[in-house]
Fold this protein.
Amino acid sequence: MKLRHAFTALAVATGLMGVSAPVASADEPVASIDFAAEQGAFPVDGKSGYWVGSPEHEVMIREAGDVVRVDADNGQYYLRLDFSAPTGQLQVGSYEHAGGARILAVATGLGCPDDYSTFTISRIERGAGGLTALDATFEQRCGSPAAPALRGEVHYRR
């Protein structure tokens, strides 16, 4: 009988906590990054994560000129990715290092200026205030096309 009361109390407490939890407003941007790096993938070296903008994870995605920048920080680890096309603003499509596209990856102060990257923008939208939506997948290698890879995806809605 005590066990049944414990489950009932737990269910009620969980339900009450769910009612008081903050709900994201439709006006708040939603940004996320999901990434995994192979061992030796500079500068991320074996780390992985799935971070959504929240009090525990800061994820900001914005466009500055012709660069889409992703800044992600969980309080212990910082990752920045700058995506750029060979010329002009990024559009829906696939981009490769051989064609002049770049991903500048910076992790905890170390960066890779000599990247071999590919990425695909499956959705990008802009409004009067700038970037409003982004869906992209990526693969970045530092120093050589055969180097260990950092792979992932980013999403943004405003």
Observations:
- The first strand starts at residue 30 and ends at 37.
- The helical segments are 2-20.
